[in-house]
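Methods — Computational structure assignment.
A single polypeptide chain was analysed. Its primary sequence is given first, followed by the predicted tertiary structure written as structure tokens.
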Amino acid sequence: MKVRVEEVSPIERKLSIEVEQAVVAQELDRAYKALSRQVKIAGFRPGKVPRRILEQRFKEQVEDDVIHQLVQRAFFDAIHEHKVEAVGAPRVTNEPLKADAPFAFEARVEVKPKVEPKDYKGLALKQAEVKVPDEKVMEQLEQIRRSLSRLEPIEGREVAKAGDFALIDYQGTCEGKEFPGGKAENVTVEIAPGELIEGNVAALEGMKVGEEKETDYPFPPDYRVAEVKGKTARFKLRLRGLKARVIPELNDDFAKEVGGGAQTLEELKVKVRTDLERALKARAATDERDVLVKALAERNPIEVPRAMVERALDVMLEGAFRMLARGGLDPRSMGMDMDRLREDMRGKAELEVKASLLLEAVAEQEGLQATDEDIEKKLEQLAEDSSQALSQVRKRFKGPDERRNLAARIREEKTIEFLKSQATYS
């Protein structure tokens, strides 16, 4: 096999490849023999169909398959032999296939650029504030209290007041007709200003348990039910019962109910403060990384392969969709314009690719590596942060790919810490 590699740009190579005639003939023979065993042609037993008959009927299909095999094998052999760091699929142009001649093709492929970082010391950073004030601790405790609240029936009162929760039946019509989702029983709503479709029904205020009332509601123009989209519906409401939100008191019993090991309110406050400080430090670290890599990219302008940007976009979108799914939302049902979303995120993805390449180059230049000790400490930290057994975390990172990715993550973290140690703080 003959191979010539040309540098088209810092991120693209052109490979001119010629496969020997003997290899071409061998591949064609193999393909026709396999086809002879597979096809059924009247008058011939399987495996005994003459090649000239197969060529008359299947020549184009066989040659396409052989070209694909030759290109794939020759391309990967060539980039391995010539140490071409391809980061995407090649764009191939080829000559026609002939059994009595070599097969030649050209493959253009994006490559990982060689980066020689400079001016990465003395980057400007602001000192991050990671102290958590007492009022933030109390705000978090209040949120936890509300999350543990429960609804209990109101006794001794039958007239609805603002702030109550009501158990109702409702039936709606639009232009005199029922519509999908317009009827339900035993539904809990809040007696508060807001939108009926979000569970707020201020019109219930003043009603007595057992009473019925009618009210109008204008649906928004983008409402999902076509029959009422942008129209006003009339609802008949029946009040079945009243409930009140009961919020637990802030005391030691509440601390035990929250869980997490706290037995007293003071212990819970300490835990909440620690969690908030950890989140604040993580946010500060993310912000500092963003500032550092942006400044690094400005001082080291580099061109990045489109294939790497597309992969970064895939990872970012997959992460965003996982977050939506954890929140109970199905991205497929949200009518997202995926092409528009990708383009909106492209700038961020491109910067992330540049950051990855530059941080890797800085690590290489400064001799920063992830040692076995670093990996062990990271596994212990992951176990602590996730409240999992260390053995479980070790099992998760047992495979070579997972281990390699963890090492790369640690190496990047060490590089960021190095840049911070060399930064100029204000």
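Note: The mean pLDDT is 92.
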